[in-house]
Structure prediction request, 260 residues.
Amino acid sequence: MEIVTHDLIILGAGLAGLRAAIEAARVGQGKLDIAIIAKTQLVRPHSVCAEGGTGAVMRPEEGDSLELHAWDTVKGSDLLADQDAVELFVQTIPQEILQLEHWGIPWARRGDGRINQRPFGGHSFPRAVFAADKTGFFEVHTLYDTLQKYPDITKYEECMATSLLVEEGQYCGLTAIDLKSGEFLVFRSKALIIATGGACRIYGFTTYSHTVTGDGMAIAYRAGLPVKDMEFVQFHPTGLVPSGILNYRGGSRGRGISDQ
Ligand SMILES: Cc1cc2nc3c(=O)[nH]c(=O)nc-3n(C[C@H](O)[C@H](O)[C@H](O)COP(=O)(O)OP(=O)(O)OC[C@H]3O[C@@H](n4cnc5c(N)ncnc54)[C@H](O)[C@@H]3O)c2cc1C
Prediction:
């Protein structure tokens, strides 16, 4: 059986995996042999379904602040969030919004030409940056387009990882099935980033895509890796039963938009 070798494997090509691949290629400056593997097509992770927007402090001069965004986030988690992660997130995300803009995302604009922002559930300031009602779709496509700039990233689509390989307590690779041919594959790498998304398809009724089945977490768990905060699942207040779509009228706080 052929064994494919790379320096770094990124498992998953949602917003998390695509962004990680670009950053690894940028930092690696052509010296890292990177692979990105997804069981879906690279432009069809669940992330394309995110609609409402991405929270970021873009207008401190109009009353928003990093402290307020951090407080809203911690409050929204009933004080259970990892506050170091929250702080890093709110500090980083305004720059990420501008970075996506420079990579070509068509953010919605205000009349004065600045990036538009709208209210979002849980936020005490209208700080959701959006691209019509297809924010995640445009974010994924912008990252996917940017990925094409890096020839050192090899892409494996419709390729589903099934197990991690561990030698003497050390990660060394993974097994996968090429879903197009049914072929069994073995990958080796020095490092792995797991970005396989959530597990919400464990529920009978959910707005998550049929691909969000938690198998990435399961293979990590089976290999002995600790998994963190598994109980943090978002139960959305505006999901419609039985269609499974999110309500866009009279959102959870009566602002006329969905929280997502
Ligand atoms: C209806 C809806 C609307 C939402 N709207 C918003 C919003 O407006 N704003 C917001 O911030 N968040 C929103 N969210 C949440 C947001 O969509 C997710 O948090 C985010 O997209 C997760 O990104 P990800 O990269 O972690 O995972 P995903 O996008 O799920 O990507 C996972 C990747 O891993 C791959 N993968 C999984 N298992 C394997 C395997 N075994 N082998 C190989 N590849 C594998 C998949 O193919 C995919 O490429 C929304 C969620 C839903 C359900």
Observations:
- The CA atoms of residues 217 and 228 lie 10 Å apart.
- Residues 11-17, 37-40, 45-47, 49-54, 135-136, 160-161, 195-197, 207-208, 211-212, 215-216, 246, 260 surround flavin-adenine dinucleotide (CB under 6 Å).
- The first strand starts at residue 3 and ends at 11.
